[in-house]
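ok so I'm stuck.
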Amino acid sequence: MTSHSNDDDHHGHDHDHDNHFSEMQARVKALETVLTQKGLIDPAAIDVIVDTYETKIGPRNGARVVAKAWSEPDFADWLRSDATAAIGSLGYTGRQGEHMRAVFNTPETHNLVVCTLCSCYPWSVLGLPPIWYKAPPYRSRAVIDPRDVLGEFGVTLPDTKKIRVWDSTAELRYIVIPERPTGTEGLDQQALADLVTRDSMIGTGLAKPAGEAP
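replied:
not stuck anymore, here's the structure
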């Protein structure tokens, strides 16, 4: 999504601040400090949880699901019929990933996921949700004008391709299985997983072309 700075937010003041936190981050830090002082939370435990979802889980679990679906038709069929069980067979279960549905991109249809009410998101599969996923502009415009929203993410689709929008809820969360890039027939599942981006599993991106893996 595009972002815009607003010089009016400075209200005419020109202060140099050492605080690099956003207003919301500063509030969270302040709350964390109070709760720590009261002995209600352990900052180290919180750091471990955040690190797990940001760096160890991130979108890696989902990328492995996609790579397996690309490589194994039987697994892809299982994903279509019972995504929760298929994903769970790889050990990816738990917080906000209990009820899953996989939707497959095709040459005719592109899928896009949004949560119009809040920010329901499959943490155990895709990690922490990006900030824009929780933002009201995305939540409203993805439903009203998905083609323009995709364009803002750099995804330009032919007019003939249908865009289907899925509304994630507390009862059901989605993973998009992007189309497999051409020229990847000889790659193993790990190499294929390296082509899968977080955004491609939300629908705001595409898988990387062959040869662009890190």
